[in-house]
Amino acid sequence: MVENTADQEVLATYLIVDGEVVYEVAPNSVLNIGRLDSNDVVLDDYKVSREHAILKFSGTEFLIVDLASTHGTYVNDERVDRRIVNFGDKIRIVSHELTLSRELPDVEGSEGLSIPTPKMARTLDRRLKFFGGLNEFSLLTLVQFLSQEKQSGLLLLELGQKPGPRMYFVDGEIIHVADGADLAELLTRQYHQQSLFFYFHHETNFPARTIHEATPNYLMKLCHSFDEKQVRETDEVSSLYRSTGRLAVTRRIDAPPPTGRR
Q1: Phi and psi for 105 in degrees, rounded to 5?
Q2: pLDDT in tens, the chain (262 residues)
Q3: From residue 215, how far is each of 13, 26, 152, 200 by CA, in Å?
Q4: In what order do the strands lie in the sheet with 96-101?
């Protein structure tokens, strides 16, 4: 944690990448780390995910969050989903090592060194990125929150290591959904496994609008369509039971094989 009191300014903090590149980390900011050029910290490595992790500095502590990357984020050789990071800890992303320092490091050619300024640093306000696992509340609650707060951006869902539905919001209205085959089922779940991860960030380029109805109506129709599907499947099972007088039951693995005798 960073030492800080009401009478003391937060000391300048630097992120050092591979002992060569230095980034200044401002208090109350977030740095995006990944392979794409749009990130604050760009790691030009094909094994690094496009948006691999974020480093969040509240002014009193640092938090590293892995964005469901393929090859993971490590702190002191331990793979982490999210972890408080202290000075002296070693963050590893694929073959790249990142460390934090209170002092400008003495790297080769550091005289007159130009420290890169993060391109997309954002203050920690209500319009900051939202991220986390959907194991404590439902996806529907999150979507309703984004709508009520009139957020604009892209909500990405990760199902394990696989990309899930992507929902585009403009002023709280859902305008487009991509890869949404599982969306209705996910919206009706009350609880989620740790493997369901969400990541919301503010987008500037939006696809053409394909959803032209109010978001509450759109969500209600999705949930209603899934409920109807469940009812149809239940009716089909009931119909099968009525026509055969019994349900097909899968034999337990540890049950003895049938002998042919009644």
Answers
A1: -70, 155
A2: 554 433 335 566 889 998 888 888 888 778 889 988 878 888 988 899 888 898 988 878 899 988 878 899 999 999 998 899 999 999 999 999 999 998 876 655 545 455 555 554 433 333 345 666 676 668 888 898 889 888 888 888 877 667 789 999 999 999 999 999 889 988 888 766 556 778 887 766 789 999 999 999 999 999 888 877 766 666 555 555 555 555 444 433 344 444 554 4
A3: 42, 37, 13, 17
A4: 21-25, 13-17, 96-101, 91-93, 73-75, 78-80
